[in-house]
Design brief:
There is one protein chain. This protein has 11 helices and 13 strands. Strand 2 and strand 3 form a beta hairpin. By secondary structure, the chain is α/β, with parallel strands linked by helices. The chain has 2 domains: 255 residues, Spore Coat Polysaccharide Biosynthesis Protein SpsA, Chain A (Alpha-Beta Complex); 35 residues, no CATH class. It is globular. Bound molecules: 1-O-phosphono-alpha-D-glucopyranose. The site of 1-O-phosphono-alpha-D-glucopyranose has 14 residues, from strand 11. 1-O-phosphono-alpha-D-glucopyranose (G1P) binds next to strand 11.
Length: 296
């Protein structure tokens, strides 16, 4: 199906305080997952779903991000002179990946505020939002499925994951109804980071959205919510009740997802992805097994 969705917005202005001091002078999006910065996985995911126009909403540390997706002539020349074509190829992977644009968020007033900064660039068309803390395994495509549903229903689409009730307070949570499709639910309500007792379900929003452009006009008048921040979830709650803009649907994701925003999950993601790699797994796996034996 040909998509009319071409733009991806990636909020990347977070302070990354959970990873201090690593993130003192470097954006958290640049933390490596094995040997690639987390943000590169996210841009690759957007491109693989056909979204070649990427807008990053950055904070004060945007230089490292810009440099990563730009050419680095000196390094390229050195590798070329050495004949190290394999490394040259890896360096160039991020260079021509997408047509990347940048806008500054200014005050970090929340995810809703970051998305609103994309209004000028996006204009009047549906677009995707990808949060850098969530990595979706490329073997389990999610964004394609969401774009397909957006086209079919002309609605706003969120990605939902069933999480353990003990984790629900970390997410936007949806009230849902079944649809005629096994992996799609209708979202009738949304609440940002409820307590376990008040959570309407265990369907958590993970960081992928395909939004109708009406979200901008709603975000403009969305008051600060949870944590004093302008919450995307609050704008979506309003969209869920508005049939005239298609309502909100959730694609239920059952694939592999890594939360690189959390320290333990970040470590797990690196170990898992490295052990699955042909160049690292054969050496890492037997070591891991031995290491586990030494743990009591
Ligand atoms: C944000 C959203 C939340 C969503 C989560 C997914 O929260 O506000 O609704 O469930 O991303 O990762 P954050 O993790 O940025 O606090």
């Amino acid at each position: 199906m040909a998509s009319h969705i071409t733009k991806a917005v990636i909020p990347a202005a977070g302070l990354g305080t959970r990873f201090l001091p690593a993130t003192k002078a470097m954006p958290k999006e640049m933390l490596p997952v094995v040997d690639k910065p987390a943000i590169q996985y996210v841009v690759e995911e957007a491109v693989n779903a056909g979204l070649h126009d990427v807008l990053m909403v950055t904070g004060r540390n945007k230089n490292a991000l810009e440099n990563h997706f730009d050419r680095v002539a000196e390094l390229e020349a050195t590798l070329e002179a050495k004949g190290d074509l394999a490394k040259l190829e890896r360096v160039n992977e991020s260079t021509g990946l997408a047509d990347i644009h940048y806008v500054r968020q200014g005050d970090p007033k929340g995810l809703g505020h970051a998305v609103l900064r994309a209004e000028m660039h996006v204009g009047d068309e549906p677009f995707a939002v990808l949060l850098g803390d969530d990595l979706i395994d490329e073997r389990d495509p999610l964004l394609d499925r969401m774009i397909e549903e957006q086209l079919k229903r002309n609605a706003t689409i969120v990605a939902l994951l069933e999480v353990d009730p003990s984790q629900i307070h970390l997410y936007g949570v949806a009230t849902v109804e079944e649809t005629d499709e096994e992996d799609v639910v209708r979202v009738t309500g949304l609440v940002e980071k409820p307590s376990r007792e008040n959570a309407p379900s265990n369907y958590a929003i993970i960081g992928r959205y395909v939004l109708r452009p009406e979200v901008f006009e709603i975000l403009e008048r969305t008051e600060p919510g949870k944590g004093g921040e302008i919450q995307l979830t609050d704008a979506l709650q309003e969209m869920a009740g508005d049939e005239s803009i298609g309502g909100v649907y959730g694609v239920v994701f059952r694939g592999r997802r890594y939360d690189t925003g959390d320290k333990i999950d970040y470590i797990k993601a690196i170990v898992q992805l490295a052990s699955e790699r042909d160049d690292l797994g054969p050496e890492l796996k037997p070591w891991l097994k031995d290491f586990v034996e030494t743990i009591d």
